[in-house]
From TrEMBL, chain A:
SUPFAM superfamilies: Oligoxyloglucan reducing end-specific cellobiohydrolase. It comes from the Bacteria. One of its GO terms (biological process) is xyloglucan metabolic process. InterPro entries: WD40/YVTN_repeat-like_dom_sf (IPR015943), Xyloglucanase_GH74 (IPR052025). This is BNR/Asp-box repeat-containing protein.
Automatic annotation (TrEMBL), chain B:
SUPFAM superfamilies: MoaD/ThiS. InterPro entries: Beta-grasp_dom_sf, Mopterin_synth/thiamin_S_b. This is Molybdopterin synthase subunit MoaD.
Amino acid sequence: MQNTILLGSRKGLLVYGERAGQWQLAQHHFSGAQVSALLADGARWWVALRDGHFGPKLHLSEDAGACWQEVAVPALPADGEKRPILDQIWTLAVGRDGVLWAGCIPAGLFRSGDAGRSWQLVEALWQRPERAQWFGGGFDDAGIHSILIDPRDPAQLVLGISCGGVWRTRDGGASWALHCQGLWAAYMPEEEKNTEAVQDPHRLAQCQSKPEVFWCQHHNGQFRSCDDLASWQELAPPAPLSSFGFAVAAHPHDPLSAWFAPAEVDQRRIPRDGDFYVLRTRDGGRTFDKLQLGLPAAPAFHLVYRHGLVVDAAGQRLAMASTTGSLWLGEAGGERWQRLSAELPPIYCLSFA
Amino acid sequence: MPTLTFTRHLQHLLPSGPLTVPGDTPRAALEQVLRDYPLLRSYLLDEHGGLRKHVALFIDGELRRDGMDQPVAATTKIDFMQALSGG
């Protein structure tokens, strides 16, 4: 049982722990700093800070938060005459080979073989000519928010870039290919809506037991790929269920099940009519369950960011947190929700540990 | 030698109080400090050596964000402060 939740908030790292069935705030680190990404690998925790004055930072704990050390942050190279400056580490992932990956804004992918003490830019992605087509989604620059490491082979990575599509390497980053067949972009002119390099996958998730199955919460719809990214199929939940949102969590073992946290269209980014719910499918997206037992009644203005919904390793318990400072635990696959707090800072990311 | 003072928000990275170091520009003087306190670098400078957007540089009390490479006198007082923007 994973009985710890790490929360990356606008005001630091919050650690919730379960003791005798009660969840409580157990630790608070980096008070006042925005946490842009976090990662737990056993007792080894990484926390990326986005400091508005002093730049992005990365901290490492080897003992589940007891002690911290500041390690290095990636550095972007000169880009012709431009001098891109790292805004934030947006996502972190570690493979079973111990290699740590950082996806950033601007959209550089970085590799570390020493737990973040040094970083190397993945040049083969940075030099792709398609990068000239990428653009920011919610930020001034494009960014890498999803790094999926294949459970069978840590040299195979899938990236989600807003706005720059879905990319995969099979050789540890030496070469890359786009995988956006079937995605479409309502925010582009009609003749450009299928252009692969401008797609905006808000978040990607992969089934661990059947890794050829992927899920995508895209800017304008939910999609699933069951053919190892050869194509994407739009799921299109029936109205009034919403197709917009940021987060998706894949069931780790059941390739037909996933959860989404929808919101109303990109111009508003709030629950439609204040109706806040989690969307679940258990049949590959043919039908959906609207889960809201224990979630606040309308009007509720909660928005869940792309790293704000996770499922545990068993696929039974979920954790979800919002930009308006609530944290919920979802039991029985999200059938019942319990709010652990409604008094938190805005939450950007969370993880079981 | 110019005297450098740093915002109290960086006190976990270097000793409190002004530091007097050799240097004929704010950048040169700062580089002297960074020899002893290398972790401070990324807090004040970006990866291309530019002063971070929301760090304020004062030279003898005057806000001079463009002054990193300006010649300074031996008696100059240099302050690296946290701007109120960027929070």
